[in-house]
Amino acid sequence: MLDKLPCEILFLIANFLPAAHLGIMSQVSSRLYTALIPLIYRAVTFRATSEWALNVLDVDSFFLHHGRPQAANHLQHIRHLHFYAPINLARFNRCAYYSIFRTAGLSPCSSTLGTSDNTVAHEHFLDGITEQLRLVFAHLKPDSLRTFQWRLGTCLPMGVLDKGGYLSQHQRRLSRLLLVTDGTCPQTSIGLGGLSELSCLTTLAWEGIQHPSEIESLRQCIDRNWGHLTDLSIGFISSAASRALCWEIFGLHRPEISVSKDKFAERSMSFSPLSALSLSKVTLPSELSLYGSMFRSLRTLTLRDCSNQVHLLRWLAQSPASLQLEHFEACIDPLIFEPGEDCGFAALVEFLLSFQGLRGLHLKLSNFPTWGLALQDAIRHHRRTLKNLVYHERQLERIDDDGLFENDRDALPYWISNLSGVVDLSRMTALALCASPSAARQCLEPEASKLQLQVLHLRFSGPEKIHRDIKREIEALLYERHTKSMSLPPMKDYDEYSALIGDYFDFLLPRNYSLPETTLKPPSPCEAEEFLAFAEWAFGPSGLPNLHVLAFGDFSHEDRYPNQQFLVRRVDFAECRQKEVGRSALEEISGPSFCSADLTDPCVWNDVSVDGAQFLGACPGGGLMESPYDF
After folding, report:
1. Which parts of the sequence belong to the F-box domain (predicted)?
2. Distance between CA 474 and CA 531 in Å, rounded?
3. More confident residue, 478 or 631
4. Measured in whole angstroms, how far is the alpha carbon of residue 471 from the centre of its chain?
5. Residues forming beta bridges with residue 69, ordered by sequence position
6. Cβ contacts of residue 193 below 8 Å, gap of 6+?
7. Pick from 225, 167, 226: which is nearest to 191 by CA?
8. Are 616 and 551 a contacting pair, CB within 8 Å?
9. Can you say whether the dihedral through the CA atoms of 268, 173, 10, 66 is positive or negative?
């Protein structure tokens, strides 16, 4: 029936479906396949699966899978092109400039006069990537790309974003540019000289900035796209260079350099289209009076470990013009602020009380005072509009018996017992707290039937439990519990029943799950048991009726801590029937109304009103790219 619909109606339906469903739908008939191909391949991601082989992308696999003629045809439909690699362990020195493995493989005569082996290795590394990029670029339609994302965390090869490079010459209508580069590589800025040649950008995001030449390229790019840039995200790598030069991000120079104030004012006024600003490890200027219109136009503001951010919050609170912010995120630690700054507690409270209308508030506060009602009042000030809240608190604690050494540790918010008095839980759709499952249940259970929560995240910091495999513990305990709870039917139906049980557990647990080889009885830490007990309550008849997704652990930067995170979602009987698991069988098994989920599966977020992956990753621990001196 679908293949008989007019193309216009078919496209309207397809626009609401995830890419995976479009692929299945296209197999119904040749007409649907032909019609849906442009939608299926409008966004394509090429990946490097290993952090230790970042020059090995799956471009060749794409051509082998589809065949060269068909692959070339599919690439013509790309509008959003992404190059992706995991950034978990290798957060600096990712580029092969420092790779001893590649320099070890070079012949004694490989270096030319004045060229180090490291430089030659770096060139060979980028040459391997360049060959794969050219294979893709050769089949793209000119001026067809709208998004280009480089998330390998390495230098960009020459010929992509350098002066006269492919993007500036052949994709001049590019509107979204997302970069993650290796600022620890001395040559990272060589391939970025063409940033200023892009003139249609509305979204610019760049993580991993460190070198002065990078800052200059960024400044020129912002200057070129000044009038229509709506979304700007900048992330530095901590270093003396970035702290000294980040004044120039918005086209400014250091205070000791004489620059016309009229030019400042002109640029500040022309920055009014900016609606979303995200700054990470950026040193903000002390003089902020020239930026009033820029901040007043913002709807979303994110500040992560920025020097002078307390000064910015105080200035915004005392500014005569009201803010229009709808979403605010801040990661603040007084111990890393400049000498002479206060702890920032009063400034944060004053800022939150200076305006109304926040729909999303994400806070990660380290070493803030744990007394007083001021913070409760500041959050309560947005009670009528607040839809999602993230709150993660950390405090210094002794890590030895003598009390000689201290380190940051997760702390239970002192006001969590009065949660319903701080936020209107009947309005909240997403909530994330640094709290144990038992503490969360204690504050949510009294009003559970009235809650509208769709996403609940019980947070902890991954590095604190890096020695634990939380995911494995929960999966093994889940399997053990429901194996014990099964009541076997008469032997005559055993074969049929065994197949049904197998289908059920294939559905309940991830496909790649396998039991420990040594024993069927896994370790059962009270933490895993506590989480499962909470999940059974939350998805049960007396729990949270609108809850779709429950998350546990650290989702910083997606999968940085894969063994310290666990995600489950609600399962209804209709879905189980699609998996050939009947209602009566479920009742016999006494199975839970939830199953494990994958963060990257778009179907998980179908019935959720927030960007689930972004919400779980709010206020991350550490930067996406980091300096070796941060460890």
Report:
1. 1-44
2. 8
3. 478
4. 19
5. none
6. 161, 162, 163, 217
7. 167
8. yes
9. negative
Per-residue pLDDT tens for 182-197?
Answer: 888 877 667 888 999 9
DSSP output for 1-34? -GGGS-HHHHHHHHTTS-HHHHHHHTTS-HHHHH
Task: Label residues 164-179 b or e (16+ Cβ within 10 Å = b).
Answer: ebbbbeebeebbbbbb
Element at 529 (helix H, strand E): helix 526-538
CA distance 527 to 100: 42
Other Cβ atoms within 10 Å of 517 Cβ, number: 6
Residue 179, classed as helix, strand or coil, is strand
- CA 534 to CA 540: how far, in whole Å? 10
**CA 549 to mean position of chain CA atoms:** 17
* Cβ pair 528, 435 in contact under 8 A: no
pLDDT the model gives residue 307 = 84
CB contact at 8 A, 558 and 84: no
- Max distance between CA atoms of the chain, in angstroms, equals 91
Q: What residues contact residue 261 under an 8 Å CB cut-off, 6+ apart?
A: 290
In angstroms, what CA-CA distances link 614 with 65, 82, 136, 151, 278? Answer: 32, 18, 29, 16, 13
Task: Give the count of beta carbons closer than 10 Å to the beta carbon of residue 37.
Answer: 17
Residue 386 burial (CB count, 10 A) = 21
Beta-strand pair 80-84/147-151: parallel
Residues in Cβ contact with 217 at an 8 Å cutoff, skipping those fewer than 6 apart:
189, 192, 193, 195, 196
Q: Which two tokens stand for residue 98?
A: 């420092």
The pLDDT tens digits for 438-454 are 999 999 999 999 999 99
- The structure tokens listed for 303 are 């500040």
CA geometry: angle at 54 spanning 50 and 58, to 5°?
Answer: 75
**According to the model, what pLDDT value does residue 389 have?**
97
CA–CA dist 3, 232 (Å, integer): 42
Cβ within 8 Å of residue 130, ≥6 positions away: 157, 158, 159
Distance CA 39, CA 60 (A): 22
**Which H or E run contains 204?**
strand 203-209
In angstroms, rounded to a whole number, what is the distance separating the alpha carbons of residues 236 and 244? 12
Report the DSSP pairing between strands 388-398 and 430-433: parallel
Residue 197 is predicted with a pLDDT of: 94
Closest CA to 47 of 151, 183, 185, 191: 151
Torsion angle of alpha carbons 429, 433, 439, 440, nearest 10°? 10
Q: Facing residues of 233 across strands?
A: 205, 278
